[in-house]
């Protein structure tokens, strides 16, 4: 109503631009408005990476809404470490844990050791109430320690960069699995998805000075936690390279052709586990390599299912290497998701020379976080009546302006007619 009233005044007082264009406001976190000179809010989370410990300080006004969270609703890491004891009068909640505690994961890169964990806010009703007033949130946290030069604490602020694990071998074979943008040009900046989207996954092997190798995705499984042995689980790739997720109502498939022999790309239609409130999944894949000059076979292949032709087809190699996908038996028992194994390549002499090289590895990417579209639809449906009311009020205001203008014109014309009639009456 205030907006309609302001528009109505602007129409009546057309020249008053100061009234029609007030001072701009900035919408701050929490939904409140402040002038442009508002002071920026304090960082809600502070991370301190020490020599052997990780210290996380969380503001109780975590969401900037002035609705304080409770310390009992906060945990750190997959093992759910609890915060330090604090009083209700304190404005912050603190965690202090060892770098290897709470289920924290470690990743080795060319120039750094990266410790990854997450802060979980899981609000629960207070007392006999059945409602909560804050959101559930999982915030990734990383600490990076340089591998060269002097080691100094460097705190990495929480980001939405996707978590991934990388496995190294003694001959610098590096297996990796990454979430990519839709055009495959770069790593995906956020791990968030809506149901109906497709996750673009890229598996790679960095060989260094090794002989040319060809990478295969032998087996993939999705779980609600980073533990590939967790339940429930959903098999995406099975039988030594058959992308079985594409057999259902999904369009999951390997990309043809592959960009390089040491890289394999595939898409998976995203999903979440029924009756699981976590709305996130982790994907663990068993990757392996063969010599690039070796032809693909039933044990080393990348096969997708084509619904139009109702048949399997390979990324490379003869079509008959995918026929075993229909039978679910591709030479030897399929890779057991709970018992990763290691093999060697080449002849027996070369295998003895490289007996410590890991040519198979399990790598994990996640969490893939799913955003619920239902809330957006409800918001749109809720906003529709307000928009309709606004249009009605605007139309009413314009009608009132037109009515007042017409009344003023009629009054002016009436006065002119009366003035013109007076001389005739005087002459009579």
TrEMBL record:
Proteolytically cleaved before the transmembrane segment to yield the secreted ectodomain incorporated in the zona pellucida. Component of the zona pellucida, an extracellular matrix surrounding oocytes which mediates sperm binding, induction of the acrosome reaction and prevents post-fertilization polyspermy. The zona pellucida is composed of 3 to 4 glycoproteins, ZP1, ZP2, ZP3, and ZP4. ZP3 is essential for sperm binding and zona matrix formation. The chain crosses the membrane at residues 390-413. PROSITE patterns: ZP_1 (PS00682), ZP_2 (PS51034). It is a single-pass type I membrane protein. Residues 1-22 form the signal peptide. Residues 48-310 form the ZP domain. It holds the Pfam family Zona_pellucida. Polymers of ZP2 and ZP3 organized into long filaments cross-linked by ZP1 homodimers. Interacts with ZP1 and ZP2. One of its GO terms (biological process) is egg coat formation. The keyword Secreted applies. PANTHER family: ZONA PELLUCIDA SPERM-BINDING PROTEIN 3. GO terms for cellular component: egg coat; plasma membrane. The keyword DNA-binding does not apply. It is found in: Zona pellucida; Cell membrane. Keywords: Cell membrane, Cleavage on pair of basic residues, Disulfide bond, Extracellular matrix, Glycoprotein, Membrane, Pyrrolidone carboxylic acid, Secreted, Signal, Transmembrane, Transmembrane helix. The ZP domain is involved in the polymerization of the ZP proteins to form the zona pellucida. The gene is ZP3. Its main location: other. Belongs to the ZP domain family. ZPC subfamily. This is Zona pellucida sperm-binding protein 3. InterPro entries: ZP-C, ZP-C_dom, ZP-N, ZP_chr, ZP_dom, ZP_dom_CS.
């Amino acid at each position: 109503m205030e907006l309609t009233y302001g528009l109505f005044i602007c129409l009546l007082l057309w020249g008053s631009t100061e009234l029609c264009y007030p001072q701009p406001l900035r919408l701050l976190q929490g939904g409140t408005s402040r002038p442009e000179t508002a002071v920026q809010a304090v960082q809600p989370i502070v991370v301190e990476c020490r020599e052997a410990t990780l210290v996380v300080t969380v503001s109780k006004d975590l969401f900037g809404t002035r609705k304080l969270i409770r310390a009992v609703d906060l945990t750190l890491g997959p093992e759910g470490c609890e915060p330090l004891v604090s009083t209700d009068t304190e404005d912050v909640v603190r965690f202090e844990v060892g770098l290897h505690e709470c289920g924290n994961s470690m990743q080795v890169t060319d120039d750094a050791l990266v410790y990854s964990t997450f802060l979980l806010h899981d609000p629960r009703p207070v007392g006999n109430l059945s409602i909560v007033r804050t959101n559930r949130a999982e915030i990734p946290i990383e600490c990076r320690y340089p591998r060269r030069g002097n080691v100094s604490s460097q705190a990495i602020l929480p980001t939405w960069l996707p978590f991934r694990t990388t496995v190294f071998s003694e001959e610098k074979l590096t297996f990796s699995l990454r979430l990519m943008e839709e055009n495959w040009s770069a790593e995906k900046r956020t791990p968030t998805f809506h149901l109906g989207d497709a996750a673009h996954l890229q598996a790679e092997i960095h060989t260094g000075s090794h002989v040319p190798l060809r990478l295969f995705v032998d087996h993939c499984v999705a779980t609600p936690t980073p533990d590939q042995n967790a339940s429930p689980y959903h098999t995406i790739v099975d039988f030594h390279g058959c992308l079985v997720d594409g057999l259902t109502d999904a369009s999951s498939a390997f990309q043809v052709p592959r960009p390089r022999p040491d890289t394999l790309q595939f898409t998976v239609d995203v999903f979440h586990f029924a009756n699981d409130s976590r709305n996130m999944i982790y994907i663990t894949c068993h990757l392996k390599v063969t010599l690039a000059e070796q032809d693909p076979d039933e044990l080393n292949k990348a096969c997708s299912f084509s619904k139009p032709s109702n048949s399997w087809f390979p990324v490379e190699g003869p079509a008959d290497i995918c026929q075993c996908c229909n039978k679910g038996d591709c030479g030897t028992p399929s890779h057991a998701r709970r018992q990763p194994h290691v093999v060697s390549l080449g002849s027996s002499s070369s295998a003895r020379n490289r007996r410590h090289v890991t040519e198979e590895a399990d790598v994990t990417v996640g969490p893939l976080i799913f955003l619920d579209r239902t809330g957006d639809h409800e918001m749109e449906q809720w906003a529709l009546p307000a928009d309709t009311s606004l249009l009605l009020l605007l139309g009413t205001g314009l009608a009132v302006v037109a009515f007042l203008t017409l009344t003023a014109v009629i009054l002016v014309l009436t006065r002119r007619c009366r003035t013109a009639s007076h001389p005739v009456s005087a002459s009579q």
